[in-house]
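Sample A.
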Amino acid sequence: MRIQSYKHDGKIHRVWSETTILKGTDHVVIGGNNRTLVTESDGRKWVTREPAIVYFHKDFWFNVICMFRDDGVYYYCNLSSPYACDDEAIKYIDYDLDIKVYPDGKYHLLDEDEYKVHRSKMNYPESIDAILKYNVDELQQWIEHKKGPFAPDFIKVWHHRFNNEH
């Protein structure tokens, strides 16, 4: 399955060529990929360097990429619309803000300047701004309380399952 991220104005932002779906329910999609071709909106292409588990939830305005590196698990969290799925891909709107979580549990909110520029340029409504602020707080709570994809058992189970499928 492909993953396609868009910007608020409907333009394609980034495409991951292939992700193995490990679990799909009405509310959650968990996938895995490794050495996957990624195409940027400007046509630039690159290949992911490490295995990753991706986590999407219908009820939250974020998705999480768990990357397995030699020194531990890093998380890259995109503030985004809830995902939609069709025959073509898993799709979402990327709203610029990201949270990077390090193996020691420390985390940083990234790209606030990019968010401000795009919010103005693409006219994000106040309702979207409020939803995103709420979801930044929600995501930080998940990180701090090791909930969802940040739980140690989540990582063990899904990394093991992905390895067994490849």
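Sample B, a different protein:
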Amino acid sequence: MARALFIIDVQNDFTEGGALGVNGGDAVAAGVTQLLAEHGDEYAHVFASRDWHDAEGDNGGHFATGEPDYETNWPVHCVAGSAGAEYHHALDTKRVDTHIRKGQGAHGYSIFEGVTPEGRSLDEVLTDAGITEVDVVGLATDYCVRRSALDAIEHGLQVRVIAGLVAPVDRAAGDAALAEIAEAGGVVVPA
């Protein structure tokens, strides 16, 4: 049984001052770096996902063509190669084994919807690494963390969400997401 860490979307556009900044995003970035410094050896593999949207078009309706509704479409964010798509400066990525890019021309909420820069699926890498358990941290609790954790459960993985290392867009929605993950069989633990 091998445990992995999923670091979900700790990017400039999702932290304070970004196009879709989440309150607490800076603290999550610093906290994940601390987790890796203190407990990184407990993980057989570390994955980090990033929204990596196409610069052209609406990315399958993900980018609003008018006023965004902030539910199904959004302002432009995390365009591939842009400063907003880069990892937050407080996130130390030296211990990341596999980078996953998601949303390339599509919505892409879950880490399972992404691929490595070489085009490998997350499932392939998980299988090759013998991963059976994952800890999930990152942004935002009520969107990409939620979907990634639920998909991991659906893929038969044992899932823990570290509640002190996630931050929601909306606090009530974030609390509901953590409750949904727990009801689906995941475990929510403090930092």
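Observation for Sample B: The chain has a mean pLDDT of 92.
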